[in-house]
Known about the structure:
Strand order of the largest sheet: 1-2-3-6-5-4
Enzyme class: transferase
Function: Negative regulator of sigma-B activity. Phosphorylates and inactivates its specific antagonist protein, RsbV. Upon phosphorylation of RsbV, RsbW is released and binds to sigma-B, thereby blocking its ability to form an RNA polymerase holoenzyme (E-sigma-B).
CATH superfamily: Histidine kinase-like ATPase, C-terminal domain
EC number: 2.7.11.1
Family: Belongs to the anti-sigma-factor family.
GO molecular function, one term: kinase activity
Amino acid sequence: xxxxxxxxxxxxxxxxxxxxxxxxxxxxxxxxxxxxxxxxxxxxxxxxxxxxxxxxxxxxxxxxxxxxxxxxxxxxxxxxxxxxxxxxxxxxxxxxxxxxxxxxxxxxxxxxxxxxxxxxxxxxxxxxxxxxxxxxxxxxxxxxxxxxxxxxxxxxx
Length: 157
């Protein structure tokens, strides 16, 4: 497994007005890696949805909650984590512990409706959810063609 060449972590108050801060940061990071404008829009929608769900559901009864957003930058992909527990986390530890989301799973992250998770899964290449003291949504987006190229065998003519 390739190691991230940069890791950026931000904590924001669990308030809707801070979603835009993450969207702007994400745009800059994704642009630096080389994502297209369309891919950057997909990333912004998916990450915004994950943060919005944390704002609406994780801290419904508590004031002053935090959301931690982590960005792991690679040469060929961007991994983004959104955690509603407000705790700083170890990227490698979460990667080892996290399991794939299954449609039969009990994802508290999307207690109401489930449309948000469908949207996130349709825009991202990989989505995993980890539930412990809070919920961590782990999303991966590959640079265009990177995932396909690594899985396709060459056909000779």
